[in-house]
Each structure stands twice: as structure tokens, then as C-alpha cells.
Amino acid sequence: MTSTTTTETFDSDPARPDSEPAIAGSEVGFATRAIRTGHLRTPESEHAEPIFTTSSFVFSSAAEAAARFAGDVPGNIYSRFTNPTVRAFEERLAALEGGESCVATASGMSAILAVCMGLLKQGDRILSSRSLFGSTTMLFNKYLARFGIETDYVPLSDPDAWEAAVDPRTRLFFCETPSNPLTEMADLSRLAEIAHRHGCLLAVDNCFCTPALQRPLELGADLVVHSATKYLDGQGRCVGGAVVGDRKLVGEEVFGVLRTAGPTMSPFNAWVFLKGLETLELRMLAHSERAAKLAIWLLEQPAVERVYYPGLADHPQHALVGTQQRTGGGIVSFDVRGGKPAAWSLIDATRLISITANLGDVKTTITHPGSTTHGRLKPEERAAAGIGDGLIRVAVGLESVGDIQADLARGLPRS
Ligand SMILES: *Cc1c(COP(=O)(O)O)cnc(C)c1O
């Protein structure tokens, strides 16, 4: 992906009710889709998108009720199945990712669970990047394994390792790029090619980049999953998730799990995410600009041993920035000299930055992965994953970058 002004046509999804986008068939740019797609104006002539807080919908007659239940006539029945506000968010995110269908979920984790339940069966295997959001690893290892779906792990940035690890039972490739917290990157086009050659699907957790910076479907991925909790909201208010892909995989299989098992998105949360999408591109570029400035400043600090940021020229997969991924993104990690005591005292010396493991907020956050997000790993597993005792992750917000630097400088070891 090299520009955000590429245009694509997008039209309605006949498999689902209420799916006619407001600008069906138009060829418009990313920013326009982020602002205009998905809202069907009601007879009240509202300008901003309304929130439909209703659990069920009424029918004009018993015959119409029967026809809707039978699927002969499109239309809402119950908000576990479809809801107009949720649908508006789904339409808009699908248009941004360049997918035919989107299904919104109660959280990022329920998006990943719905993909696995909808597309895998007992005996199938997942091939996944080793560096993965902690709860995703737990879901794969503890819960899916119980139902006979096992996972093999490979290094994210080594396509040959993926190729070598494919098993005849492998059905799904799964990765996050860039990784948390070390910002390693996968070559998505290559992974998609390997997956398809072996009859597998590629799912990408696009939480860190969002479609404003990276569109995995355009690179050959089959599915995109999101934790909308992070940058799609952008202001740390709601928990939610989504799956994007084609009509068959997402509009039928994943949607079927959602409407039956029920981890659907609430209309209020959908409305918050819908409005978040309107400023997504601006925010992602601003997060990236501040993160790049912070990364360069950190490189100059004597107490900082190493900086991890895709936008830096010495990043091992730097070549993918500007092609696969538009900018470096908002996450910067660094090793501070002095190990865990130095890292903890740096964190404790901050006054502005929030000490929290969340990310994707306008407020800058700081965390010590070794004792929080990656604290459950054994010391040797942490070392193998490259998570040092002095490692700190900063999710750069939208405050003035000079103030973020000054806040970190307070606790940097001197001499
Ligand atoms: C937060 C996160 C998730 C899980 O999302 P929730 O909304 O918290 O359920 C999944 N993947 C990544 C990369 C995340 O950062």
C-alpha cells in the first residue's frame, strides 16, 4: 500500500439486511469512506449517525415476521443478529479494509474466537507467529487445544520458517504485524502466498496499524481481525472487535457464530467506533509522527541501549515501511541500561504518561512488558522472545511530543 487515495468500488452485501451503503458503487478515497460510508439516513433527516438502542425490531404482520425469520425478506429481527448502528460500523470498516463483509464483535478476543469457531474444526491446526497478544496465546494453547485444535508457533519475520512448519492439518495462518512490543514485521504478501499454496487461510490481527496504515486484504490475506478497543476507538472508551473478509468466510461463517453464540457488539460501542473511524487516518499519521520523533530522541539518550521502531533505518524489516505499512505506527519500545530496577524507576518517575498496558489512545501509555504483558512467560521464554528486563514500551499518544520526552527524561538513568 503506498497511498490512501486509492479508490475501490464497494457495494451492498445481499447476504445481510440493512447493508446498502449510503454511497453504494461510488469510487471515493479512504478519508471519504471513513466519514461517509455506512449511514442510511432515517426519515428524521439526521445529519450525524443515530444510535439504535433497541434489542428487537417489529414486523408489520405475522406474515412479514415469518418471512424475515425464514430469511426470505431482509431486515432486522433482533440485535444479537443485526442492528443498524452496528451495521453502519461494519460497513464503514469493511470499506476501509477493502473487504466485502465485516462482522463486529464484543471484543478483539471474541473476534479471534469467532474466526476459529467459524472456520476450524477438531483436528485442524493453526500456524501462528510466536509473538502474539497474550490472551490470543492463551486462547490457542489453553482453550482451543481442549477442542482438538492445536497451534504451532514460528518466528514472525522468517517466511522460510512458516513454509517449513506447515503440516497437512494446518488450516489457518495467524499473525500480528508489527509485533508487540518489539515491532518486528511479517512480509504479508509472502505469507499469503505460502498459506494459499498449502490450501490455508491467512488471518492478520491489524490492531497496531489499522487500515489507515496497512491493508492486509490487498496484500493477499483472507481475514483481518481487530481489537477496536485500541486505535479504532482511539480515545480509550469502549471494548470491541471486528472481523473483515469475503462474503462466504465472514458474511456467512463468522457471522453465523456471532448470531448463534452471541458475543456481538453493543449499539453504543458501535457508535463510538463509527465516529472513531472518521478521524482514524489523521490520528494514525499524528501518532506515527510523534512516535518517529520520540524514537530518534531516544536513540540520542546515553542510558538507552536500543530502540525498536519500524520507522528507524536500522529496523530489520525497515524496507516494508512505505510499501506494506505506510508509516512506522505509534508504538516505540526501548531497552534502558540498568535492567528492571532502572525500567521500573523510569516508569515511576513519569507524571504525564499513564502507566497502563492499554494502547491506541490519545493519552500516551507506558508499560514494562517483562513484568506485565509478558510476565507469565518463564524467564528463558522471555529471553528467547527478546523481552529484556530493561525493556519499556511506549504507546505514543497525541500530546505535544516535547512533553512526552521531558516526562521520560525525568527517570532516565544519568551518567
Ligand atoms: C488488545 C488486543 C487484542 C484483544 O482485544 P480486546 O479488545 O482487548 O479483546 C488482540 N490483539 C491485539 C494485538 C491487541 O492489542
Description:
Its cofactor is pyridoxal 5'-phosphate. It comes from Imhoffiella purpurea. This is O-succinylhomoserine sulfhydrylase. Helix content is about 35%, strand content about 15%. It is α/β, with parallel strands linked by helices and about 425 residues long. The protein folds into 2 domains: about 10-280, Type I PLP-dependent aspartate aminotransferase-like (Major domain) (Aspartate Aminotransferase, domain 2, 3-Layer(aba) Sandwich), CATH 3.40.640; about 280-410, Aspartate Aminotransferase, domain 1, CATH 3.90.1150.10. The strands form 2 sheets. It has a 7-stranded mixed beta sheet, sandwiched between helices. The protein has a 5-stranded mixed beta sheet with strand order 8-9-12-11-10. Strand 2, helix 5 and strand 3 (about 150-155) form a beta-alpha-beta unit. The longest helix is centred in the last third of the chain and has 20 residues, at about 280-300. It is globular and about 80 Å long. Mean pLDDT is about 95; it is low at about 1-20. It binds pyridoxal-5'-phosphate (PLP). The site of pyridoxal-5'-phosphate has 15 residues, from helix 4 and helix 5.
